[in-house]
Amino acid sequence: MIGSDVPEVMEPREVRPSKNGGPYVTRTVFGWVVNGHTANFIKADVELSDHYRKYCNMEFNDSIYNRRSSTSLND
Questions:
Q1: Residue at 64 is within a domain
Q2: pLDDT, position 75
Q3: Do 27 and 17 meet the contact criterion of CB atoms below 8 Å apart?
Q4: Residue 10 burial class via C-beta count within 10 angstroms: exposed 0-12, middle 13-18, buried 19 and up
Q5: How far apart are CA 31 and CA 13, in angstroms?
Q6: Could you give the CA distance from residue 31 to residue 10 in angstroms, rounded to a whole number?
Q7: Which of 6, 26, 27, 65 is spaced 20 to 30 Å from 47 by Cα?
Q8: How many domains are contained in the chain?
Q9: Which residues contact 28 (CB under 8 A, 6 or more apart)?
Q10: Is residue 57 part of a domain?
Q11: Can you give the residue range of the structural domain that contains 4?
């Protein structure tokens, strides 16, 4: 974690309380931080995941390496 060896940089300079049980914010030397906010997992579409995987396999095909040496222009 950033600042774990220098805890004073994570010390809040200002705190703004939550409203109606929502998140609250704190200002540090690095800027504002939202606390108490939750993130939700969204299930990805299987077909879209397959298309993305195929695209990555075509674009970044390091695993499909051809060990045959190619001929030079002089050959």
A1: no
A2: 63
A3: no
A4: middle
A5: 9
A6: 10
A7: 65
A8: 1
A9: 9, 10, 11, 12, 13
A10: no
A11: 1-37
**Position 17 in a domain:** yes
> Is residue 69 domain-resident?
no
Q: What is the Cα–Cα distance from 53 to 6, expressed in whole angstroms?
A: 41
Each residue of 16-32: pLDDT tens digit? Answer: 999 888 899 999 888 99
- Strands ordered across the beta sheet of 14-16: 14-16, 24-28, 31-35
Q: What is the pTM of this model?
A: 0.42
Mean pLDDT within 65-75:
66
Instruction: Give the number of other CB atoms < 10 A from CB of residue 72.
Output: 6
* CB contact at 8 A, 33 and 23: no
CB atoms within 10 A of CB 47: 8
